[in-house]
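TASK: fixed-backbone design
INPUT:
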């Protein structure tokens, strides 16, 4: 009888130990599963933060490029305005040049006429001297 009781107690103790080991294994597996879930959640949070940081950096880079484009367009418009002003000044110079060329041509004609008159005067003076010399 004693052996049966002892066998029953051993069996009950073994069963209790098996149950305790099973509970311990289940608790550890649950703890591991919770830790994995928590790690996964933290990784998702970090990934989201990183993604948001990259998006902010991309938006900042795009805004900077937009500002550069705006500044380049302003400089282009300013240069275009300066070019138009230069073209207008050149057109005025060309328009003024026409009358200046006409004036220069008229002056050259008058100088040629004056030279011709000086030549005729010199010829007339020479002719007068010749006639005076002949008449003496």
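OUTPUT:
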């Amino acid at each position: 009888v004693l052996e049966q009781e002892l066998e029953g107690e051993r069996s009950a103790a073994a069963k209790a130990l098996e149950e305790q080991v099973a509970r311990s294994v289940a608790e550890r597996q649950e703890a591991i599963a919770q830790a994995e879930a928590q790690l996964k959640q933290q990784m998702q949070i970090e990934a989201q933060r990183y993604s948001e940081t990259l998006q902010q950096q991309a938006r900042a880079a795009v805004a900077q490029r937009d500002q550069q484009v705006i500044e380049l367009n302003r400089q282009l418009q300013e240069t275009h305005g300066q070019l138009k002003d230069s073209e207008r000044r050149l057109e005025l110079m060309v328009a003024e040049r026409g009358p200046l060329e006409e004036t220069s041509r008229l002056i050259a004609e008058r100088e040629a006429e004056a030279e011709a008159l000086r030549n005729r005067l010199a010829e007339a003076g020479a002719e007068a001297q010749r006639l005076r010399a002949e008449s003496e």
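COMMENT: The helical segments are 2-135.
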